[in-house]
TrEMBL record:
Highest rank taxon of the organism: Bacteria
Disordered: region residues: 1-20
Pfam families reported in the protein's UniProt record: DUF2795
Naturally occurring in which organism (per UniProt): Paraburkholderia acidiphila
Name this polypeptide is given: DUF2795 domain-containing protein
InterPro entries xrefs: DUF2795 (IPR021527)
Length: 100
């Protein structure tokens, strides 16, 4: 099974599963960004995550962030969770699962 990225919706087999999956992703992102000095732009975040050996889904989530300075991890986390939930809702409306 391939990991979900910020542009892919996690499968929600039970209520709250999409949020749980998004929060799990942000936990992995947090680990990858432990050494970041804030504020930071997405390019800095991607470089830091890559240097720490972050998984593909973490890098993809960071690649989809807007090109602006983020003051803290909580700003990054909020955007990642929101994007994951929007993608899941969109897929559900289309009747599509984006995860195989």
């Amino acid at each position: 099974m391939k990991p979900a990225s910020v542009c892919e919706a996690p499968r929600a087999d039970a209520p709250g599963q999409a949020r749980s999956n998004a929060e799990a992703l942000t936990g992995r992102v947090l680990h990858a960004l432990e050494r970041v000095t804030w504020p930071a732009h997405p390019a800095t975040l991607i470089e830091s995550a890559t240097n720490r050996g972050a998984a593909h889904d973490v890098i993809e989530a960071l690649r989809h962030l807007p090109d602006e300075a983020f003051g803290s991890f909580s700003e990054v986390s909020a955007l990642i969770v929101a994007a994951q939930l929007r993608a899941r809702e969109s897929a559900a409306q289309r009747g599509v699962s984006t995860q195989g």
